[in-house]
Specification:
Blueprint: H1 2-25, E1 35-42, E2 51-52, E3 55-59, E4 63-69, E5 76-79, H2 81-85, E6 87-94, E7 97-99, E8 105-108, E9 113-120, E10 124-129, E11 141-147
Parallel strand pairs: 1-4, 3-11
Antiparallel strand pairs: 1-2, 4-9, 5-8, 6-7, 6-9, 10-11
Amino acid sequence: MQRSIEVILAIILCGCAILLPARNAFGSDLSRQPVTEVNVSLGSETGELKFFPNNLEFESGKRYKLILKNPSQQKHYFTAKSFADASWTQKVDAGNVEIKGAIHELELRSGSKAEWVFVPLKSGTYNLRCTVAGHTEAGMVGKIAIAP
């Protein structure tokens, strides 16, 4: 019994040792940092199958609000799973709904808007694409870079 308690305490202390430096590196509360807004259009009114802009750059540890708009006549997806896995999502606002937790893909119907508030945590370059059939092949792709 005593040995089990010691093992549990060791696991808790190791977890704290790993998590506390990350918390201090990004400030005590990520959700209270000032937010930088970035606008992205999924497609265009004329039917172009592109992201505008199609190359996005963020800095690790800074808080962003990604404002996604779909001005086209068809639905589009903002799909960037690896990027989402490398970021902390505070929330997604879409219509009258606020979504919290892990986000891997956002669907925007014609004329809709969504706001994704997040903090990138892991530097790297990530792929972005629209997964509607034929859209990736038509060039609706991009890159998302997270600088250290």
